[in-house]
Every structure is written in C-alpha cells, then in structure tokens.
Design goal:
Blueprint: H1 2-6, E1 9-12, E2 16-17, E3 24-31, E4 37-44, H2 50-63, E5 71-74, H3 78-87, E6 92-95, H4 97-101, H5 103-107, H6 117-127, H7 132-145, H8 152-159, H9 181-190, H10 200-227, H11 237-246, E7 257-259, E8 266-268, H12 272-276, H13 281-289, H14 326-347, H15 351-371, H16 376-389, H17 428-434, H18 462-483
Parallel strand pairs: 1-5, 5-6
Antiparallel strand pairs: 1-3, 2-3, 3-4, 7-8
Length: about 475
C-alpha cells in the first residue's frame, strides 16, 4: 500500500551488512508526504552480480503489483545498471551524486581539497547550472584552467553526465533527491534493531519491529499535520529584511517562466516542479503579479497532500476488475474494510441499528457466497485441515546461509574476508583519514606514547606492557563473573 501511494521514486543501496552471515542488506526505500523515508521491502543477497539483481528486481516488482517506479537512484554498480535496464526499461535510472563526488578526493587530491578554488567551482558547475549548455561550458572551462583535459576518469564522468548531473535529470520526478542517502539513512535506523550477531530468525523479528517504528512515526506526523496549522503573517518585515540581506546581486539567477493566461498551466526553466513536485518561487512570483490567490489544481501533486496515505477512490469502477494482481486485491480489501467500518461505527451505539447491520451482513453474505469462487466455509475448512495436510515449520530443516563474499570486501592478514559489523564499506583513504596517530606527550613525537618514550627513564618494555594487558583482561573476566 505504501508503494501504491509513494512508489514513484525509489532509492536502492547494498552497502550495508546486517547480521553474522555478512549478506548485503538491499532495501527499497522511498519518501512519503512528510518527507520521511519509508520501506517498500528489502532483500538479503548472497552475492552482487547482475543475475542476482535481475532476479531481485523481478521478484520485488511482482510483489508490488507489477507497476515499475518512475525513477530509481543507485550507486555506480554495473550489475545494478544492467539489471535495471532489463527489468525497468522505462524507469529513469540515475547514479547517486554523493558516491561520485566523494571520489573526487581520491582521484583529484592535487586540486580537490578543503577550501580549494577548484572544489568550489566544480560544486557550482554540478549543482548550480540549470541549462545543459551552461554545465558543459563551465565543465570544459574548468578542465582547461586546471589542466585536466587528459584526465581519463573525468573524461569518463563527462561521457555519462546524463546519468548523474542534476541538470540532465531535473525534468523527471525524483522527489527532490540526488543521492541514495534515504537508503543509507534507513541502514542507520536499523542499527538500533539489528546487530552483526543477529541470525536470520532474529533479523525477521527485529525487522518487523523496525517497520512498526516507521509506521508509528508516519502516524504521528499525520496527526500533527491534521490538527496543527501554520500561521503565516504577511507583515513579518523582519523576515523580509533578512531575506534582502542574504541575497547577493551577483549570485541571483534569472529564470524564464512560461504560463498560459487562460488555464494557468506552464513551467519554469529551473524545473523544480518537475523534479520535486512542489512549485518554485518563480512561478509563485508570477501568480502574485497576476493576483492569483490560489494554487491551480494541476500544480498540487496528490502524493504531497495532507492525507496522501489515506485510501482514495478516484474511480470506484477502476477497482471492479480481476487482473489477478495482489495490488488490486489489496485495494479492494482496503476499500471494503473502510466502508464496513463506517457502518459498524454508526450501528454500534444503538441496539436497533446493530440488529439492522447484522441482518444486512447476513443477506450480503448469502449474495456474495453465490458469486464468490471460494466460499468462506471452504476457507475455514482449509485452515482446520492445514496442519494435517502441510508439514509444520518444526519439521522443515532450514540451514544457515553461507557467509557472503561480495565485491569490495576487505581481507585480513590470512586472506579471509573480514566482517564489517553492520556498517557500510569504507574506502582506503576514508579509513586513513579517520585513523588517529599516537602522539607522545613527553617528546611530542608520533609513533609511541609516554610509557614507551625513549626519553622517559621509567619507560615500560613491551614485555611489561603485555603482562599489564593480560592482567587487566583477567580482572575484567573476574568482574563479569561476579556481576553474573
């Protein structure tokens, strides 16, 4: 149901390890009408090759009712790219901007560093150009100014610019997203429920708890949005003054707005409505000039409305068909439950109304039983005989999966794959930047501490340190036994 309302844009990421088998956790993530991350399902993979991704996407698409998303964001993985082209041929696929930008530090360390002019200029070129020809012109100029015309990595990036540069994707709805950060945010969210020691059974139970937390968070926002109102005052002169102080004439962009004076249909060069689904300030400014008091209906997407996640019957006849899809069955069931609940709420306070309700339900039961392919009596009988027909879960032997050997995995000194303990894989340069060097507080040199400093007459030898560590370990074990 969540996918039915908000499945127009999906982010997909496999950089997370959730349990002791080190299987990549592959969540399908979207964004709801509160800009919260929501789940459309997930998978645990044994490997990350194109055939596996193709199976996963087909299985997930079937579970979602066969309707592919409008757009999908992933990292720069060739296996994913091939599988998406096969399973989602009409879906706009783009690469995560963050994953590409972080490689600038590794590939161009000589020019791309903190506060460098190139870093500032390339950021403007990528994120602050609204015409394709402007981006290409700025890019070529930067390559020439920094003598990077022969850089093969940059040449490769420019060749695939349509798959990652924002200006080439602003004409497609992405709910304002440029990265797979939603998926990685969901990963950190699951850290509170799943650890690297969790087995598959524990994972399923805790995954359900995590989903319940996500649903509760959405319900809380629904309540606030329906019962609280934002107060907007046209006489906030202080805010208007602050707005003037923050804007600079040399950074102002001019955008051309095309608008039909009769239907008020139109578009802006910035393409914010096409990309985010929310009107830009440029079109709103034109509306103010034309004394238009309300936003036209065609500029209000249903997925951003206050009750976007509540069941809506746009065309009741649209549900009267049997296409065999689980999505259609779910929609009909949801609609019937909603209507039945309304009647039950009306009938409950009165004995007379209750009697009418029950009699009506009995009449309805007989009518539906005549046209239903499977009667409720047969369903009940199937449930009663299910234990004698099907083997119980206790009789089925489920073995643990093998520990996954995925691409990009780090090796230990023995050549075996190292565990990642529920965190995303880090690059070598990222790990080296995070690693702190030991500094001696006596001689202020790196590589040792005060205890082993050559200048310290009371310094301890390596043997003394080993005995000290062994003693502290045994003390901790004794302490834990006492606490138990």
């Amino acid at each position: 149901m969540a996918y039915h309302y908000f499945g127009d844009v999906v982010t997909f990421d496999t950089t997370y390890r959730t349990h002791k088998y080190d299987m990549p956790f592959a969540p399908f993530t979207g964004v709801n009408h509160h800009m919260q991350s929501i789940k459309f399902g997930c998978a645990l993979l044994q490997d990350e090759i194109e055939v596996t991704f193709e199976w996963l996407f087909r299985t997930w698409l079937d579970a979602m009712g066969g309707r592919p998303p409008t757009s999908i964001i992933t990292d720069q993985d060739l296996g994913m790219k091939g599988a998406i082209a096969t399973v989602f041929p009409n879906t706009r696929h783009r690469l995560c901007l963050w994953h590409i930008k972080k490689k600038f530090v590794e590939k161009l360390s000589q020019v791309y560093y903190k506060r460098s002019k190139f870093k500032k200029d390339i950021k403007k070129c990528i994120k602050e150009t609204y015409k394709k020809e402007d981006f290409e012109g700025r890019w070529m100029l930067l390559m020439k100014e920094n003598e990077l015309e022969s850089n093969k990595w940059l040449q490769g990036l420019f060749d695939i610019r349509e798959s990652w540069v924002p200006v080439y994707n602003r004409g497609t709805f992405f709910a304002g997203m440029n990265t797979t950060g939603r998926s990685e945010g969901i990963n950190s969210f699951f850290d509170g429920f799943v650890t690297h020691t969790s087995n598959l059974k524990e994972f399923v139970v805790k995954y359900e708890k995590a989903l319940n937390r996500i649903v509760k968070r959405e319900n809380d926002e629904d309540f606030e949005s329906e019962h609280k109102f934002r107060i907007v005052n046209d006489h906030e002169f202080l805010l208007k003054h602050a707005g003037k102080l923050k804007s600079k004439d040399d950074e102002l962009e001019k955008f051309e707005v095309t608008l039909d004076s009769q239907t008020y249909e139109g578009k802006c060069e910035c393409q914010q409505f096409e990309f985010v689904g929310i009107l830009c300030v440029h079109i709103l400014k034109v509306f103010v000039r034309l004394d238009i008091d309300e936003i036209p209906e065609h500029f209000i997407l249903p997925r951003w409305r206050q009750k976007a996640n509540k069941f809506r019957i746009i065309d009741s006849q649209g549900l009267v068909h049997d296409d065999g899809k689980e999505e259609s069955k779910a929609l009909r069931l949801s609609h019937m439950c909603q209507e039945a609940t309304k009647l039950a709420c009306l009938a409950a306070p009165s004995n007379e109304a209750y009697t009418i309700f029950i009699e009506g339900m009995n009449d309805l039961f007989e009518k539906i039983q005549k046209v239903s392919k499977v009667s409720p009596i047969e369903i009940c009988a199937d449930k009663d005989n299910k234990k004698s027909i099907e083997p119980s879960w206790a009789e089925i032997l489920l073995l643990d999966p093998n520990i996954s050997q995925c691409k990009g995995r780090k090796k230990d000194v023995n050549g075996k794959a190292a565990t990642t303990q529920s965190e995303r894989l880090k690059s070598g340069i990222e790990m080296s930047l995070n690693k702190k060097k030991r500094k001696c507080h006596m001689c202020f040199q790196f590589g040792h501490d005060k205890r082993t400093c050559p200048s310290n007459p009371m310094r301890k030898t390596s043997k003394d340190l080993e005995e000290e560590v062994e003693g502290s370990d045994s003390d901790q074990e004794e302490g834990s036994d006492c606490s138990e």
